[in-house]
Write a structure and sequence with these properties.
mainly alpha, 178 residues, DNA polymerase, domain 1
Length: 178
C-alpha cells in the first residue's frame, strides 16, 4: 500500500468529500488510469483537509489559496512532514480546483483588466497554422502577456530592435527554456 493510499484514511476532506468522488469519476470518464486517478484524488483530499484545518471555506477558494497550499509546511494527518508539497502534488490540487470551478462549486477567478488585447487572432493563428495544442497556446499567451508590459501599449512604437531587446532581457531573467 503506497503512502498516499494509506494516508488518505487519516484525511477528512469535510464538505468537499463528495466532490472528490465526482472529480475521480470525471477523470475515469476521461479514461485516466486508476493509479493516476488515485494520485489526483489523494492530492484533492489533502487539499480539502488542509482547507478545513486552515479554516478556509469553500467560498474562499481561489488561486491564492492554492498557492498557499503549495507552500504550506505540511503537518497534516497521516504522518506527513514536508517543507512543502511537490509541484506535481499541488498541480493536481489545482486541477481539482479547476474541476470545482467547472461544476460551479468554486467561483471563477476575477478577470484582471489588461491594457492589451486578448490576442484571439494570434491564438487562432497558432491553432490553425502552427497546429499547436490548447495547452501550448495557453503557455505562449501567458508568456506573451508577461512580455507586453515591457514593450508598452503604444504598438506603433514597436520595431524589431525593441522586441529583440525586450525578449533578450526577459530571457536573461527567466532562462533559455522559457
Amino acid at each position: 500500500m503506497d503512502a498516499d493510499n494509506h494516508n488518505h484514511w487519516f484525511l477528512d476532506p469535510g464538505p468537499l468529500s463528495s466532490w472528490i468522488d465526482h472529480f475521480a469519476a470525471d477523470l475515469a470518464a476521461q479514461r485516466y488510469a486508476s493509479l493516476t486517478i488515485e494520485g489526483y484524488a489523494a492530492s484533492a483530499r489533502h487539499f480539502a483537509t488542509w482547507l478545513c484545518s486552515a479554516g478556509i471555506s469553500v467560498d474562499a477558494i481561489d488561486d491564492e489559496v492554492v498557492r498557499r497550499f503549495a507552500e504550506h509546511r505540511c503537518r497534516c494527518p497521516g504522518g506527513r512532514r514536508w517543507q512543502s508539497v511537490s509541484g506535481d502534488y499541488w498541480r493536481r490540487a489545482r486541477r481539482f480546483v479547476g474541476f470545482l470551478r467547472q461544476v460551479g462549486v468554486v467561483r471563477p477567478p476575477l478577470e484582471k483588466a489588461s491594457p492589451f488585447p486578448p490576442l484571439e487572432d494570434y491564438r487562432s493563428w497558432l491553432r490553425v497554422h502552427r497546429g499547436l495544442s490548447e495547452r501550448t497556446i495557453a503557455r505562449h499567451l501567458y508568456h506573451l502577456h508577461r512580455l507586453l508590459p515591457a514593450l508598452g501599449t503604444a504598438t506603433r512604437d514597436y520595431d524589431a530592435a525593441r522586441i529583440r531587446n525586450v525578449v533578450r532581457e526577459w530571457r536573461e531573467q527567466t532562462g533559455r527554456p522559457t
